[in-house]
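In response to the reviewer comment on reproducibility (Comment 2.3), we provide here a single inverse folding case reported in full, input and output, so that an independent group could reproduce the run without further information from us. The structure tokens appear first.
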């Protein structure tokens, strides 16, 4: 029954399309009394009795109505999402909800929502408008109306506000620990306006379904695009009746869903603040179809929506009541428990239990009976506890009344603890085997561990083998033996390597596989083992102090003094072998792999080709052997064995002759000489001018020759500059103090001996001959099979020798009755005859026969001044 007339006003406004009078209130609430529909109209005398029985089945429903504009205004006053926490009171958005249940509502053309009339007899009274925030907190269900005829833009705007509203609502309910499963209904209204002229009911229903799916698809896409963690898209989905019926949430009867107790019970186990969203498509009236009777134009799915809303709201209210009841019982239980606990504490405080304390003798005896083994009681984590216990026994007033046995036990255990701690301190402060670098240090440490300061005190029966200190000592002793073996192994390895290098260097040629064997030795792995790997037989004790329990690694013996000495010796021999290999490669003395050979002996056939050219040789030398140009000592022949030095000396001689031949040809070309260089002072001065500022191939040959000559003498002068300086002299100062002459016994049938003084004759083109005599001094000296005779000048006289002067030495000899002369008058050059004393003399017999005096040696005495031509001069003069 409608006592207020409001339902009639709603119906007339709805069916006529008129608008309800506007209201300025934010929320307008209505209280409805809903009861069962009677099966027949009662008589007047039955009304009073039936009203009493029916009143018990009626229920009170409060509907709160708010317009979309009010919600928009409220949402616009909220802070931006994510900037500040949401307030406990949440706004509503485009909703109409009730305290126990909410009826379906629609939005009119003016945008203001209006309520549909309820089915059955009812009374309603208008309540005072309330605040929207408070309404949202008290609601049991929420209905959101969206016009089905709205455009895509309008739907997007509505969904944007709806998403923000749901996010805020869910966050606030979760923060307030509200029971989960709050029902929210998204309703597409005015579906009758989707009908087109000529439509049948199935066509219209399919269009409604398509519109519903399109609207939901747009809403789902919007949520998928802009969803946030507090409102995941998976929580908002349209559930079909079949799916919900299969899940046991509802029962389906005639195509209409009915809520079940199982579905409501499931919502008891949802998270705090969880929202349960449902989507409906309704119409207040079906459009008129040509194929449908006039009486069938009834509301479309409106009654089903009302029923589901009421059931969901009732279930939400029941769950809230259950939660409140359980919370009250929980609080009461906690209060009872705290009261009981406080009572027990008060009783224990006022009347504590009395325990009889044991005597000191009983405590000591009990401690001795249950005493753990040394490995446990002397452990670092328990040592202080046992020490404190024993000290309390010792400091007890009744200690000296104990039996001697118990007193001795306590004192002996205290002494053991002190000895243990002292030994551990000494171990900590001592350098372990890994810190030793000599065998002497290892031996000293081993002596200390066995009989010295690091040994276990004797005479007390300490069994510390399983303790930390005992295992520490045993590990050190084991490490000493392992390091000793590894150190000896490394020394033997490096000694074998040195012997291998020495064997490779004790050769007189570099042919065959010498180069490959040398490469293998040069490329031996260094260090021979990975230094971070443990030694063979090394052990680790993980529970020792940091750095003491790890296994000894190869790094330790690798840096022992003896190993370091042999390793450095091996490196020196390895460097020598590598330098020798590179030198032999550069000189072209090796076979295999065709390395660059810039120092090979120049070919004897004319000037070199482009491959033989000195410029290309010098470039190869710089590119492949640049190290030895900056460190020439690495190629010094004196560091190699004698047999190698002989091979290198032979190569230097041949290289010198080859370079001399190349230079002679180049000088002939530059001086225009066809048949060789003239041996005249003038020609040699011209050669000096060319060598003073060399260029082209001459300069390149000079640099290559200098590199080769420095192998024999690091102080060797630059050959071109040395030769140019020699040839530039106008004169040479000669001052001969005396000579030594060694005569072999086979010059004649009888051993020869001097038969007069040694005579020096010097004459120039414009001066008279000068004769200097050198008589024999003392008796001859026997050297080998021959004799050494010493001749000293009668008077000291200097000679200014000019190129082109004649210079000879003569020594008369007698062998039995035969007389003969040794004459030094034929040097390699007619322009520099002082070179003659460095050449073998001629033996002129009495009958005039001349022969080479082989084996005769002459050398000047100390203090004499006698020029020696540069080696390159001999090579250029007589290639």
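Designed residues, in position order:
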């Amino acid at each position: 029954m409608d006592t207020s007339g409001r339902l009639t006003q709603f119906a007339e406004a709805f069916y006529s399309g008129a608008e309800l009078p506007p209201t300025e209130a934010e929320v307008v609430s209505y209280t409805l009394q809903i009861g069962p529909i009677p099966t027949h109209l009662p008589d007047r005398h039955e009304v009073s009795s039936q009203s009493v029985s029916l009143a018990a089945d009626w229920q009170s429903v409060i509907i709160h109505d708010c317009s979309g504009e009010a919600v928009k205004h409220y949402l616009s006053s909220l802070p931006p999402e994510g900037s500040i926490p949401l307030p406990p009171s949440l706004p509503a958005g485009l909703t109409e909800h009730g305290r126990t249940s909410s009826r379906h509502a629609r939005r009119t053309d003016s945008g203001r929502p209006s309520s549909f009339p309820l089915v059955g007899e009812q009374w309603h009274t208008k309540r005072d408008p309330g605040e929207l925030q408070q309404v949202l907190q008290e609601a049991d269900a929420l209905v959101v109306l969206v016009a089905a005829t709205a455009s895509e833009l309008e739907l997007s705007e509505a969904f944007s506000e709806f998403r923000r509203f749901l996010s805020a609502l869910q966050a606030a309910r979760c923060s307030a620990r509200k029971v989960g499963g709050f029902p929210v209904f998204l309703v597409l209204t005015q579906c009758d306006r989707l009908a087109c002229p000529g439509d049948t009911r199935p066509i219209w229903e399919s269009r409604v379904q398509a519109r519903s799916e399109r609207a939901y698809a747009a809403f789902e896409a919007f949520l998928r695009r802009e969803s946030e963690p507090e409102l995941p898209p998976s929580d908002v989905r349209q559930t079909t009746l079949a799916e919900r019926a299969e899940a046991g949430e509802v029962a389906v009867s005639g195509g209409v869903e009915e809520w079940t107790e199982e579905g409501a019970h499931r919502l008891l186990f949802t998270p705090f603040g969880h929202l349960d969203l449902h989507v409906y498509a309704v119409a207040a009236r079906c459009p008129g179809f040509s194929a449908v009777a006039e009486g069938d134009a009834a509301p479309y799915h409106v009654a089903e929506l009302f029923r589901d809303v009421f059931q969901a709201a009732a279930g939400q209210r029941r769950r809230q009541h259950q939660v409140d009841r359980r919370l009250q019982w929980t609080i009461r239980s906690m209060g009872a428990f705290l009261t009981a606990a406080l009572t027990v504490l008060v009783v224990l405080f006022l009347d504590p239990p009395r325990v009889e304390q044991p005597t000191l003798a009983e405590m000591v005896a009990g401690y001795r009976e249950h005493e753990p083994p040394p490995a446990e009681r002397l452990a670092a984590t328990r040592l202080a506890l046992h020490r404190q216990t024993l000290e309390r026994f010792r400091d007890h007033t009744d200690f000296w009344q104990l039996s001697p046995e118990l007193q001795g036990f306590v004192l002996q255990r205290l002494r053991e603890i002190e000895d243990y701690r002292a030994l551990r301190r000494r171990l900590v402060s001592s350098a372990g085997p890994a810190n030793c670098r000599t065998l002497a240090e290892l031996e000293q440490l081993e002596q200390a561990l066995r009989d010295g300061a690091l040994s276990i005190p004797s005479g007390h029966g300490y069994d510390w083998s399983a303790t930390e200190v005992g295992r520490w000592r045993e590990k050190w002793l084991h490490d000493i033996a392992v390091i000793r073996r590894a150190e000896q192994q490394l020394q033997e390895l490096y000694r074998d390597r040195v012997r291998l290098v020495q064997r490779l260097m004790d050769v007189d040629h570099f042919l065959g596989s010498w180069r490959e064997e040398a490469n293998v030795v040069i490329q031996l792995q260094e260090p021979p083992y990975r230094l971070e790997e443990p030694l063979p037989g090394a052990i680790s004790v993980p529970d020792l102090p940091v750095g003491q329990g790890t296994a000894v690694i190869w790094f330790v013996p690798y840096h022992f003094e003896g190993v370091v000495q042999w390793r450095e010796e091996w490196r020196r021999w390895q460097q020598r072998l590598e330098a020798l290999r590179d030198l032999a490669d550069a000189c072209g003395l090796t076979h295999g792999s065709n390395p660059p050979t810039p120092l090979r002996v120049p070919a004897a056939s004319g000037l070199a080709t482009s491959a033989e050219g000195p410029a290309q040789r010098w470039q190869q030398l710089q590119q492949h052997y640049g190290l030895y140009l900056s460190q020439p000592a690495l190629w010094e022949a004196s560091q190699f064995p004698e047999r190698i030095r002989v091979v290198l000396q032979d190569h230097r001689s041949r290289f010198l002759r080859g370079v001399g031949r190349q230079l002679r040809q180049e000088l002939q070309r530059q001086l225009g000489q066809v048949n060789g260089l003239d041996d005249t002072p003038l020609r040699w001065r011209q050669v000096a001018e060319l060598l003073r500022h060399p260029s082209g191939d001459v300069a390149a040959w000079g640099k290559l020759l200098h590199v080769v000559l420095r192998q024999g003498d690091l102080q060797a002068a630059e050959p071109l500059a040395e030769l140019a300086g020699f040839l530039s002299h106008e004169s040479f100062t000669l001052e001969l103090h005396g000579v030594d002459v060694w005569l072999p016994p086979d010059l004649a049938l009888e051993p020869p001996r001097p038969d007069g003084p040694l005579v020096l004759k010097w004459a120039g083109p414009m001066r008279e001959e000068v004769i200097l005599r050198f008589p024999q001094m003392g008796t001859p000296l026997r050297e080998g099979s021959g004799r050494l005779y010493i001749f000293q000048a009668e008077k000291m006289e200097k000679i200014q020798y000019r190129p082109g002067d004649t210079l000879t030495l003569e020594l008369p000899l007698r062998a039995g009755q035969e007389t003969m002369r040794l004459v030094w008058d034929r040097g390699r050059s007619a322009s520099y005859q002082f070179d003659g004393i460095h050449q073998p003399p001629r033996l002129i017999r009495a009958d005039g026969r001349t022969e080479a005096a082989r084996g005769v040696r002459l050398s000047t005495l100390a203090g004499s001044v006698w020029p020696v031509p540069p080696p390159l001069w001999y090579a250029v003069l007589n290639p």
